[in-house]
Amino acid sequence: MKNNLDFSIKRVNELSLQLTEKENEKFTLSADVEKLYKEIEKLRIDKNQFDNELTGYSNEGAKQSKAYYAISLLLITIITLLTTYITFNGIDLIYQTNNNQIFNKSICTSTMNNEA
Known about the structure:
The chain is mostly helical. It has a domain at about 1-80. Helix content is about 95%, strand content about 0%. It contains two helices and no strands.
């Protein structure tokens, strides 16, 4: 009986030690998990701040691109109008040259001056 009692006490002590070790391990793991949760939260906040920073840059870029589109549209319109003007004046010059209107006027005035 004494052997049985000694064995039971020894077993209770061993289980008590194991329980204490498991509790210490549980507290250590809980502390580690808490640290990881804090780190995750910190990373989420940093991620949100980074997204907010890029959102500002993106919005500013969109505003500036609208201004550049307006300026480029104005310049393209001016270039198109000038090209059209030069082309039509060139066509008129070709017709006047083919019809000898330019040369006829100068020849007529010079011939009239010579005849007089």
